[in-house]
Inverse folding.
């Protein structure tokens, strides 16, 4: 669990790479500079932890490219104190970014092995969401709705209606939609029944799985 000045230097370099790719939100870049990403992955990948690469983690899942995490975080425009629902806790890296943005985070993971590992690991390094939930992301978290923002970190074959219904008016849902490749799609809730939709380019995520495992 060591975090050294060398790691810090590599994080600063990663932030410069992300800036060159279009990440301009200084709060997001500061989160990248601060969070020890090497602790979120297998130690055998540590030398590459601050490259803009995805890596395998527990339960056949991945930790996303830093660019993808930063891009989603920038698009959501998270403000301090906002309630954010995260679908797919995964390694917890995106969760940590949301917490650095001062959001109140509710995070759902359906892989039990990953849920146990990440819900123990994140508090150890100082990151404490409002709730970790072992559950099905397709149904969201109705008892805590409405949310200011909802972020989905896995590829969904369709947009789950419960997630749209759990958004506040003015809220944003960001979800990669598609099977093998996904289109990053932003929904902004304009009224009880009206949503504005924006397509933000192609990405590749692991699939969003239904039910608990």
């Amino acid at each position: 669990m060591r975090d050294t000045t060398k790691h810090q230097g590599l994080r600063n370099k990663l932030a410069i790479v992300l800036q060159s790719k279009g990440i301009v939100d200084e709060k997001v870049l500061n989160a990248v500079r601060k969070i020890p990403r090497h602790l979120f992955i297998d130690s055998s990948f540590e030398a590459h932890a601050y490259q803009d690469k995805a890596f395998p983690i527990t339960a056949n899942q991945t930790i996303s490219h830093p660019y993808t995490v930063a891009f989603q975080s920038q698009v959501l425009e998270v403000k301090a104190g906002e309630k954010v629902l995260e679908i797919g806790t995964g390694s917890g890296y995106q969760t940590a970014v949301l917490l650095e943005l001062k959001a109140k985070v509710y995070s759902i993971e359906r892989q039990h092995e990953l849920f146990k590992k990440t819900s123990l690991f994140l508090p150890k390094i100082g990151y404490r969401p409002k709730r970790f939930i072992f559950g099905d992301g397709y149904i969201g978290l109705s008892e805590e709705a409405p949310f200011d923002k909802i972020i989905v970190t896995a590829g969904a074959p369709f947009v789950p209606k419960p997630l749209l219904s759990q958004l506040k008016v003015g809220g944003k849902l960001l979800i990669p939609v598609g099977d093998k490749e996904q289109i990053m799609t932003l929904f902004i809730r304009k009224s009880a029944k009206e949503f504005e939709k924006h397509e933000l380019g192609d990405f590749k995520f692991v699939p969003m799985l239904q039910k608990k495992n």
Observations:
- The mean pLDDT is 93.
- The radius of gyration is 16 Å.
- Helices lie at 5-20, 26-34, 66-76, 93-100, 112-124, 161-165.
